[in-house]
Amino acid sequence: MIAQLALPIAQGGPVIPTFQRGSNCVRENRQFCWEWFSSHWSSTFQPRLIEHIELTAIAVGIGFVIAFVTALVAYRWEWAVNPATAVFALVYTIPSLAFFQLMVPFTGLTRLSAEIALVSYTLLILFRNILTGLREVPPDAIEAAQAMGLTRRQTLTRVELPLAMPAIMAGIRIATVTIISLATVAAFIGVGGLGEPIFNAIQTGFKTQFIAAGVLAVLLALVTDAVLVVVQRLLTPWARAKVG
Amino acid sequence: MQGVPDPGSAAAAIEFRAVTKRYPGREAPAVRELSLSVPAGEICVLIGPSGSGKTTAMKMVNRLIDITEGDITIGEQSVRSLDLTELRRGIGYVFQQIGLFPHMSVEDNIGTVPRLLGWNKQRIRDRVGELLELVGLEQSDARRYPGQFSGGQRQRIGVARAMAAGQPIMLMDEPFGAVDPIARDRLQNDFLRLHAEVRKTVIFVTHDIDEAIKMGHRIAILKDGELVQYGTPDDILASPANEFIADFVGADRGLKRLLLRELRDIELTSLNGGTDDLPTVDERTSLRDALSLMVTRRVTALTVMGEDGERRGTVSMETLAHFADRDKSDTGVEA
Fold it and tell me: Which domains does chain A have, with CATH numbers?
């Protein structure tokens, strides 16, 4: 079992520095060797970064669809709230390493295994935010919609969902940042992403690689969050409209 | 009648026919066998203490609340026979609070029902411009959001929205309750002026008797779900049906009646010699303000002046007292 687990990490391509031919910085394994990083950007980091973005986008995308549909059902039928919350909370509590390993017997060392686990972690956050957003729509606005002859569906799409948008976007932001962080662990089952150079660096003790991959993951989270803030502002222009 | 009349379509009469609303698990009905008819183009005020059923009664007109027994007709057509969304798109609704959609621009708010009815963009834009002018807002306000306006301005937008598709009927749920007294007075005056122009049939809910007297062609006073008295403001002030009504309209009901008339509406005592020293007053002053002037000037009569600066005659405190007190039978107002 252990050997089986270690295998994908080795397969990830050892980036053990060739101490003889490397620069002084690399040979002495200093904190961070910029020159090594920039020469390995396109071979080691850029592909992993792209994988990481793919892992995250797919997880949040699929997670959103599932959570959205479930939240709409729970918003309409109150009895669905508790079971849905219980299931989503349960999967949320499974330790991530265990979850990835748990999936291997079923779906193998594949991206599918990783995505199933990652999607599961988005559900609770997204579900609760979407549901809270819908529930906090002012009753006046809903009554106004009814009184003006909007159908139930029109009320949902034209009034309730737009007004729930700030809460929904807040959920997407938290879920996305969480998944960017968790996706590094997915490298454990060999599906790439920025976790892979981190795992390798842990084994070899090569600081530059470790720091570079870690910082890239953090930067990715920050930049993504900033992009989502901009998206939120574009989607909710009324929220910033000032008096006067 | 179709559920969706064209803009400018004639107002329709509304009739409550023995309407009862019962809520499950509650013994007393919220509204009990309410019968009253509102002639086309009039403002009918529903008033009463909280729990009197006034809001429930109004909300049954567009079936925001279902009717348990009885029926409501709009221009002879039962509201129960109409498709719900069609019915509601044909009735304007003005809310007390934030009935505007905060996420939509003023233009989109006002254009809500026209959009549902499938009007094209240009027609909606033209209509919005027309309505903004009608309710006293700037054309440049169309692109702003409700959050950027004062309470009074928001209520004007609400009124514009309720008329957007030319709905012949308007339901108003304490529309001016949430604004300060000065803004409320202006909104009331502007609405009356607007109503004189558009002549919709309006059901107006309030708990403020002064507002009811000012706004209503007719006032329906409800208590515990039952109609206690229905009549013109003058009827009700002149002869309250019972102790409850007398109490409700207030001990100063005589003074309130004086508010309903101006000096030019009454017969004046013709001028004779020796009146030169009386204070003068414009003929468009209400009887109440005339009385107030007498009290503050410590006189018992005033000289009434016409717009042209000519003297019309004099009015005495006795005459005013007569109008405050006399029976409705000689006011010439139909019951």
Answer: 47-235 (1.10.3720.10)
pLDDT tens for each residue of A59-92? 999 999 999 999 999 999 999 999 999 999 999 9
CA distance A180 to B128: 47
CA pair distance B77, A215, nearest whole angstrom? 71
Q: Do A243 and B112 touch (CB under 8 A)?
A: no
Assign A10 a pLDDT band (cuts: 50, 70, 90).
Answer: very low
Beta-carbon contacts of B41 under 8 Å, excluding residues fewer than 6 positions away, are B11, B199, B200, B201
Query: In the predicted model, what is the mean pLDDT of chain B?
Result: 87
Alpha carbons A126 and A174: distance in angstroms, whole number: 8
Q: Residue A4 above 60 pLDDT? A: no
d(CA A225, CA A179) in angstroms, rounded, equals 12
Output the CA torsion A99→A101→A102→A108 (10° steps). 120
CA distance B245 to A193: 78
**Interface contact flag, A148 B101, Cβ < 8 Å:** no
- β-pair partners for B226: B223
Question: Looking at residue A6, what is its pLDDT?
Answer: 43
Is A141 in contact with B147 (Cβ distance < 8 A)? no
The model's pTM: 0.80
Q: Is the ipTM of this complex over 0.90?
A: no
- Cα–Cα nearest to B235, from B327, B319, B323: B327
Termini Cα distance of chain B: 29
Apex CA B192: angle with CA B189 and CA B198, to 5°?
145
Q: What pLDDT was estimated at residue A243? A: 54
Q: Give residues 171 to 190 of B whose Cβ lies within 8 Å of A.
A: 171
Average pLDDT over residues B77-83: 91
- Beta strands (DSSP E) in B236-299 are 280-282
What DSSP designation does B112 have?
H
Q: Which residue of B has its CA nearest to A236?
A: B103
Dihedral of CA atoms B153, B157, B163, B169 in degrees, nearest 10, equals -60
Residue B49's φ and ψ, nearest 5 degrees, are -65, 170
pLDDT of residue A15: 52
Residues B68 and A143: their CA atoms lie apart, in Å, by 20
Strand segments, DSSP code E, in B135-235 are 169-173, 201-206, 218-223, 226-231
